[in-house]
TrEMBL record:
UniProt protein name: NEQ158
Matching Pfam families: ASCH
InterPro entries: ASCH_domain, PUA-like_sf
Organism whose genome encodes this protein: Nanoarchaeum equitans (strain Kin4-M)
Domain ASCH: 4-103
Top-level taxon: Archaea
Protein backbone atom coordinates (compact mmCIF):
# COMPACT_ATOMS: atom_id res chain seq x y z
CA UNK A 1 0.00 0.00 0.00
CA UNK A 2 1.14 3.54 -0.71
CA UNK A 3 1.49 6.27 1.88
CA UNK A 4 -0.29 9.63 1.87
CA UNK A 5 1.21 12.20 4.23
CA UNK A 6 -0.51 15.20 5.81
CA UNK A 7 0.82 17.94 8.05
CA UNK A 8 -0.06 17.52 11.72
CA UNK A 9 -2.50 20.43 11.51
CA UNK A 10 -4.85 18.20 9.47
CA UNK A 11 -4.81 15.18 11.79
CA UNK A 12 -7.95 16.01 13.78
CA UNK A 13 -9.87 17.02 10.65
CA UNK A 14 -9.07 13.67 9.03
CA UNK A 15 -9.93 11.64 12.13
CA UNK A 16 -13.21 13.54 12.63
CA UNK A 17 -14.22 12.93 8.99
CA UNK A 18 -14.27 16.66 8.12
CA UNK A 19 -11.36 16.21 5.70
CA UNK A 20 -12.08 13.44 3.18
CA UNK A 21 -10.11 14.84 0.24
CA UNK A 22 -6.77 16.35 -0.64
CA UNK A 23 -5.20 18.09 -3.62
CA UNK A 24 -1.59 17.40 -4.54
CA UNK A 25 0.62 18.99 -7.16
CA UNK A 26 1.29 16.97 -10.31
CA UNK A 27 -0.31 13.84 -11.75
CA UNK A 28 -0.02 11.19 -9.05
CA UNK A 29 -0.22 7.46 -9.83
CA UNK A 30 -3.22 6.88 -7.55
CA UNK A 31 -6.31 4.98 -8.64
CA UNK A 32 -9.89 4.71 -7.51
CA UNK A 33 -10.28 1.78 -5.09
CA UNK A 34 -6.62 1.91 -4.03
CA UNK A 35 -5.81 1.57 -0.32
CA UNK A 36 -3.48 4.10 1.31
CA UNK A 37 -1.80 4.46 4.69
CA UNK A 38 -2.54 7.92 6.11
CA UNK A 39 0.30 9.66 7.99
CA UNK A 40 -0.15 12.87 10.00
CA UNK A 41 1.75 14.50 12.82
CA UNK A 42 4.46 11.82 12.82
CA UNK A 43 1.99 8.92 13.05
CA UNK A 44 0.22 6.49 10.77
CA UNK A 45 -3.30 7.34 11.92
CA UNK A 46 -5.23 4.90 9.74
CA UNK A 47 -6.03 3.64 6.27
CA UNK A 48 -8.08 5.08 3.45
CA UNK A 49 -9.74 3.78 0.32
CA UNK A 50 -9.64 6.13 -2.66
CA UNK A 51 -13.20 6.99 -3.69
CA UNK A 52 -12.40 9.38 -6.54
CA UNK A 53 -9.35 10.72 -8.37
CA UNK A 54 -9.32 13.59 -10.87
CA UNK A 55 -6.60 15.52 -12.63
CA UNK A 56 -7.62 19.18 -12.31
CA UNK A 57 -6.27 22.72 -12.55
CA UNK A 58 -6.70 25.58 -10.06
CA UNK A 59 -9.64 26.94 -12.07
CA UNK A 60 -11.48 23.59 -11.64
CA UNK A 61 -11.59 23.79 -7.84
CA UNK A 62 -15.10 24.38 -6.54
CA UNK A 63 -16.64 24.89 -3.10
CA UNK A 64 -17.67 21.22 -2.84
CA UNK A 65 -14.03 20.13 -3.29
CA UNK A 66 -12.95 22.73 -0.73
CA UNK A 67 -15.48 21.50 1.87
CA UNK A 68 -14.39 17.88 1.38
CA UNK A 69 -10.78 19.07 1.83
CA UNK A 70 -11.71 20.68 5.17
CA UNK A 71 -11.92 24.30 4.01
CA UNK A 72 -14.78 26.80 4.10
CA UNK A 73 -14.44 27.95 0.50
CA UNK A 74 -12.52 27.38 -2.71
CA UNK A 75 -10.70 30.70 -2.14
CA UNK A 76 -9.44 29.48 1.25
CA UNK A 77 -8.30 26.16 -0.27
CA UNK A 78 -6.54 27.86 -3.19
CA UNK A 79 -4.75 30.22 -0.78
CA UNK A 80 -3.55 27.21 1.25
CA UNK A 81 -2.39 25.40 -1.90
CA UNK A 82 -0.36 28.48 -2.91
CA UNK A 83 1.13 28.53 0.60
CA UNK A 84 2.11 24.83 0.38
CA UNK A 85 3.32 25.14 -3.23
CA UNK A 86 4.69 28.71 -3.63
CA UNK A 87 5.72 28.12 -7.26
CA UNK A 88 2.37 26.65 -8.31
CA UNK A 89 1.34 27.80 -11.79
CA UNK A 90 -2.34 28.40 -12.58
CA UNK A 91 -2.46 25.74 -15.31
CA UNK A 92 -0.28 23.17 -13.55
CA UNK A 93 -1.91 19.73 -13.18
CA UNK A 94 -3.15 18.81 -9.72
CA UNK A 95 -4.41 15.48 -8.42
CA UNK A 96 -7.68 15.65 -6.47
CA UNK A 97 -8.07 12.60 -4.22
CA UNK A 98 -11.28 11.85 -2.35
CA UNK A 99 -11.07 9.06 0.23
CA UNK A 100 -12.91 7.13 2.92
CA UNK A 101 -10.83 7.07 6.11
CA UNK A 102 -10.69 4.35 8.78
CA UNK A 103 -8.68 5.44 11.83
CA UNK A 104 -6.43 3.14 13.83
CA UNK A 105 -7.39 2.75 17.45
CA UNK A 106 -3.71 3.11 18.33
CA UNK A 107 -1.78 5.26 15.81
CA UNK A 108 1.69 3.94 14.96
CA UNK A 109 4.73 6.24 15.01
CA UNK A 110 5.71 6.72 11.36
CA UNK A 111 9.33 5.74 12.05
CA UNK A 112 8.28 2.41 13.56
CA UNK A 113 5.72 1.77 10.83
CA UNK A 114 8.34 1.10 8.17
CA UNK A 115 9.42 -1.96 10.15
CA UNK A 116 5.91 -3.37 10.75
CA UNK A 117 6.20 -6.15 8.17
CA UNK A 118 9.29 -7.42 9.95
CA UNK A 119 7.40 -7.75 13.26
CA UNK A 120 10.24 -6.02 15.08
CA UNK A 121 10.91 -2.39 15.87
CA UNK A 122 14.15 -0.63 14.85
CA UNK A 123 15.81 -1.19 18.23
CA UNK A 124 15.14 -4.94 18.14
CA UNK A 125 16.48 -5.09 14.57
CA UNK A 126 19.60 -3.20 15.68
CA UNK A 127 20.16 -5.69 18.53
CA UNK A 128 19.84 -8.63 16.14
CA UNK A 129 22.26 -6.85 13.79
CA UNK A 130 24.90 -6.55 16.49
CA UNK A 131 24.36 -10.11 17.68
CA UNK A 132 24.73 -11.51 14.13
CA UNK A 133 27.14 -8.88 12.79
CA UNK A 134 29.54 -11.44 11.30
CA UNK A 135 26.83 -13.48 9.56
CA UNK A 136 25.24 -10.27 8.25
CA UNK A 137 28.63 -8.91 7.09
CA UNK A 138 28.25 -5.60 8.93
CA UNK A 139 31.19 -3.21 9.09
CA UNK A 140 32.60 -1.90 12.38
CA UNK A 141 31.16 1.53 11.52
CA UNK A 142 27.67 0.03 11.00
CA UNK A 143 27.92 -1.78 14.36
CA UNK A 144 28.94 1.48 16.08
CA UNK A 145 25.95 3.26 14.54
CA UNK A 146 23.63 0.45 15.69
CA UNK A 147 25.00 0.87 19.24
CA UNK A 148 24.16 4.60 19.06
CA UNK A 149 20.64 3.73 17.89
CA UNK A 150 20.16 1.33 20.81
CA UNK A 151 21.54 3.85 23.32
CA UNK A 152 19.28 6.63 22.05
CA UNK A 153 16.19 4.45 21.73
CA UNK A 154 14.89 5.85 18.42
CA UNK A 155 16.05 6.65 14.91
CA UNK A 156 15.12 10.30 15.45
CA UNK A 157 17.20 10.70 18.62
CA UNK A 158 20.13 8.80 17.10
CA UNK A 159 20.07 11.08 14.03
CA UNK A 160 20.03 14.18 16.23
CA UNK A 161 23.03 12.80 18.13
CA UNK A 162 24.86 12.66 14.79
CA UNK A 163 23.94 16.25 14.03
CA UNK A 164 20.52 16.51 12.35
CA UNK A 165 17.38 14.68 11.28
CA UNK A 166 18.73 14.10 7.77
CA UNK A 167 21.02 11.48 9.35
CA UNK A 168 17.95 9.23 9.89
CA UNK A 169 18.57 7.75 6.44
CA UNK A 170 21.94 6.37 7.60
CA UNK A 171 20.20 4.31 10.28
CA UNK A 172 17.33 3.30 8.00
CA UNK A 173 19.80 2.09 5.36
CA UNK A 174 21.61 -0.15 7.86
CA UNK A 175 18.32 -1.51 9.23
CA UNK A 176 17.04 -2.29 5.73
CA UNK A 177 20.35 -4.05 4.98
CA UNK A 178 19.94 -6.19 8.12
CA UNK A 179 16.34 -7.03 7.23
CA UNK A 180 17.21 -7.98 3.65
CA UNK A 181 20.09 -10.20 4.76
CA UNK A 182 18.04 -11.85 7.51
CA UNK A 183 15.23 -12.55 5.04
CA UNK A 184 17.75 -13.92 2.54
CA UNK A 185 19.26 -16.17 5.22
CA UNK A 186 15.77 -17.39 6.15
CA UNK A 187 14.94 -18.15 2.48
CA UNK A 188 18.20 -20.07 2.05
CA UNK A 189 17.47 -22.03 5.23
CA UNK A 190 13.96 -22.90 3.96
CA UNK A 191 15.40 -24.17 0.66
CA UNK A 192 17.93 -26.41 2.39
CA UNK A 193 15.31 -28.11 4.57
Amino acid sequence: MKNLEFKGEYKDLIISGKKVATIRIGKLPIKKGQKLYIHSGGYVIGEAIVKDVKIIRLKDIDNDMAKKDGFESKEELIAKLKEHYPFLKKDEPLTYIEFEFKPYENPIPSEDFAWQGFEKNPIEIAKIGIEKKDELLLSNKEVELLKILIEEGSIRKAALRLGNLKKREIFRRILRKIMRRLQSMESTKDLSE
